[in-house]
Amino acid sequence: MLKPRSTPTRELVNLDGLWRFSVGGDQPWTGPLDSALEAAVPASYNDLFTDSAIRDHVGWAWYQREVRVPRGWSSERVMLRVDAATHEGKVYVDGVLVAEHVGGYTPFEADITAHVGAGQEFRLTIGVNNELTNTTIPPGTITVTQDGRRQQTYLHDFYNYAGLARSVWLYSRPATHVQDVTIVTGLDAGTGTVEYSVQTSAPAPVRVVVLDATGASVAAADGTSGTLRIPDVTPWRPGAAYLYALLVEVLDGDQVVDSYTEPFGVRSVEVRGTEFLINGEPFYFTGFGKHEDTPVRGKGHDDAYLVHDFQLLDWIGANSFRTSHYPYAEEVMEFADRHGIVVIDETAAVGLNLAVEGGLTGVPPRPTFSPETFGEATREAHADAIRELIARDKNHPSVVMWCIANEPSSHEDGAREYFEPLVELTRKLDPTRPVCYATVIFARHENDRIADLFDVLCLNRYYGWYVATGDLATAEAYLEHDLRGWAGKYHKPIMMSEYGADTMPGLHSVWDTPWTEEYQRAYLDMNHRVFDRIDAFVGEHVWNFADFQTSHGIHRVDGNKKGVFTRDRRPKAAAHALRARWKRLGGRKPSSDLQSGQLRGEERGQPVRPS
């Protein structure tokens, strides 16, 4: 689905702001909302109000506002686009249902031309449902208390924020228009190759032009598909982004009836042996798992936090992040494109693991993959999530790998039957990018059922925190044994997609005391010593970039505190240690002269002496 853009043939109206708001109740789309509440868009609604009944509400919530169609749109199609409605959305125009969508982190739209008129006003109502079940992605369970309250439980360790967390748009497009654009790039010595495919709403001549960063034409062709070549190409590189643009024009004779411009970067991605290559050069991931999470806004997109977070990524020497555990706002992806940050793009498939449920509750775990738990209907919802993720993000040069699930029970019976069709689907939709999943600590190289299906082994490991807590010597031995087992069995690139320790800022100790700033730093140092000894290792993503909100739990004090930065983005001591290490690495795996301890001295703030 193409992102709405202002072009010579399209206009765009942003509908963000304050909307009338209500939770529950009768069907409010039949008339004006009977509520004095107002909610901000974009924002999650949970933390906006002081009423706990709103924060803990399970079910539908309603947003409403009046919208006027620009008077110059009389000959245009009028489109309404919702960037995200978590986790299900319904859109009504003057009481008429015009769109429905399931999936909380990808966009949907409706052609509302038949229901509105140019220059006229209409009532727009959007319903958002936060319910999670065993057939949603992510999954969850709804129970009813003795006093009749509906409660939502789920298996992911972040708060189930809901609402219109991203923008809502009204836009125009011509009757005959560009529907989709797919761009696949490559490098042939100093020449860039650009394979393109254009879908139009009706058969029509198409002209495409590649524009460089100055707006100059560097290649052109006619037709809905083909391959263009850019001599003396400037590649898109990690830390050195360069973007071209594909100008697509739909023609009627000499007249341009629709114009759409899609930015792109020329680069290649490849897994070769135990190396991860970008533009044919080995790449070492340094960075984080992140969350779209800020105070008050919840998961609401905020450009100020976007800019500041990327400034912190640059300051600390991070070159990448994973969109844990859902697709992030498109503005984030575009910013990564423009600033050369590498992205592992993940679906919202987190919580497909009932072994975790058993570990947290003490009751015997249920089988994860079964008709009664996560079966065929769940897998089809998962497949839809993959389709929508790739359809939205396929042209972003920053995206170098698809992650189709986080911490599934890949060691259980039924895992292969569940995941093999999803891997095949992902490769069919995009054969150009590697595919991965993030493994849970229960899944080891001896019992994992699906690792051979994937290109890169992404491991979530917490030795020294959940296992061997406070005993870093034992944790180091466990970790190295674990990683060498994966390396020896699969001969694929390995990266740590999660490792971290909860840390209360300002808590200190001279001993290895969990929750202290010193322990977080020592824990990370231990992990890095092991990483540097594994030849197949290609990256490290600390969990987490910043502290974030979670559901209620006695093991959480106002959320997850594994952030290297606090929730308001203040650095903990570990941030400075990571900065020393990552600035030195510069996107490359430590060389053998650093693995003997030279780098670790720098991490502790000690002078580094030549060997």
Distance between the termini: 54 Å
- Output the CATH class name of the largest domain: Alpha Beta
Cα radius of gyration in angstroms: 25 Å
Query: SS-based structural class?
Result: alpha/beta
Strand ordering within the main sheet = 23-24-25-26-27-28-29-30
What is CATH's topology name of the largest domain?
A: TIM Barrel
Let me know the CATH homologous superfamily of the largest domain.
Glycosidases
Helix content: 10-25%
Low-pLDDT residue spans:
592-611
Q: How many β-strand runs? A: 30
Average pLDDT: 93
Sheet of most strands? 8 strands, parallel, barrel
Number of helices: 11
- CATH hierarchy: architecture of the largest domain: Alpha-Beta Barrel
Domain Glycoside hydrolase family 2 catalytic: 269-584
Keywords: Glycosidase, Hydrolase
Protein name: Beta-glucuronidase
Region (Disordered): 580-611
Characterization of this structure:
The structure is a single chain. The protein is an alpha/beta fold. It has three domains: 12-173, Galactose-binding domain-like (Jelly Rolls, Sandwich); 178-267, Sandwich (Immunoglobulin-like); 282-603, Glycosidases (TIM Barrel, Alpha-Beta Barrel). 21% of the residues lie in helices and 30% in strands. It has an eight-stranded parallel β-barrel, surrounded by five helices. Strands 3-2-4-9-6-7 form a six-stranded antiparallel sheet, with no helix packed on it. Helix 8 (517-531) runs parallel beside helix 9 (573-585). The longest helix has 19 residues, at 472-490. It is globular, with a radius of gyration of 25 Å. It starts with 11 loop residues before the first strand and ends in an 8-residue tail after the last helix. Residues 592-611 have low confidence and may be disordered.
